[in-house]
Amino acid sequence: MDLKLKGQRVVITGGSKGIGLAVAHSFAKEGATPILVSRTLAGLQSAAQEIKAHTGVDCEVLAIDMGARGSAKALTQQCGEIDILVNNAGAIPGGSVLDIDEDRWREAWELKVFGYINLVREVLPLMQAKKKGVIANIIGMAGAAPRNAYLCGSTANAALIAFTQAVGGASVSHGVRVFGVNPSPTRSERMQTMLQAQAQKKFEDPARWMELTQTMPFGRMAEPQELADLTTFCCSPLAGYLSGSVINVDGGQMYT
């Protein structure tokens, strides 16, 4: 299927691994130009080489800490034309309100919450001026189904769901679509580390972390490419009436 994305310039934060890297692969396969953004240049260069080897597409890379003040403006000044923005950067620790102190809480929100908001603040006017563009926010199921054991992330994601719905409802009057995707636990190094910590608490054996995935829908975590392909399709003109929506991708777990 031709998603009509050839030649589109796509900024992907957190683009060097996990869902972000999978998203970059999906766009590259459609002939778009991924612009990968992450903190570490070496990781970005490795990701770009991987995408080139698999798709033949040359990526652009920007080493920027999206949790730092002024990073959103620096990104827009450096990367030029942006047709599509995929907000994906963010790593929020697990724990209850008593487990995470204020400094760690604020640090996590600077990247995930304010990182998304500030980049939208910079990119949205540029897209509105052209009367076209798409912004996809990769958020997380914990915002729709909050958990005390992941309270910092649940609260952050709930805020980003509301932000996406409100901005996406208004942006269409200027020709811009904004939507969100809520992944459930998705296979990654970070998710494995979190599950190992849970297995240590539950079984006193981090090596038993895979047992925690057996009760998930389909008996497994989501795959990064599943989230990536959905995101790429929704950014395409084939999903041109989609805005203000946040799509839950949890295998139906929320309704059981």
What does this structure look like?
- The protein is α/β, with parallel strands linked by helices and 256 residues long.
- It has two domains: 201 residues, Rossmann fold (3-Layer(aba) Sandwich), CATH 3.40.50; 35 residues, no CATH class.
- Helices cover 44% and strands 14% of the residues.
- It contains seven helices and seven strands, in the order βαβαβαβαβαβααβ.
- Strands 3-2-1-4-5-6-7 form a seven-stranded parallel beta sheet, with helices on both faces.
- The chain is globular, with a radius of gyration of 18 Å.
- The two termini are 33 Å apart.
* Oligomer type: single chain
Structural class: alpha/beta
Assign the CATH class of the largest domain. Alpha Beta
- Separation of the first and last Cα atoms: 33 Å
* Mean of residue pLDDT values: 95
C-alpha geometry = globular
Biggest β-sheet: strands ordered side by side in the sheet: 3-2-1-4-5-6-7
Strand content: 5-15%
| Total count of helical runs of at least 4 residues | 7
Number of domains: 2
Helix fraction?
A: 40-55%
Uncertain ranges:
none
Largest sheet: 7 strands, parallel
Cα Rg:
18 Å
CATH fold name of the largest domain: Rossmann fold
Condensed summary:
This protein has 256 residues and is α/β, with parallel strands linked by helices. The protein contains seven helices and seven strands, in the order βαβαβαβαβαβααβ. α3 runs parallel beside α4 (102-130) and α4 packs parallel to α5 (151-171).
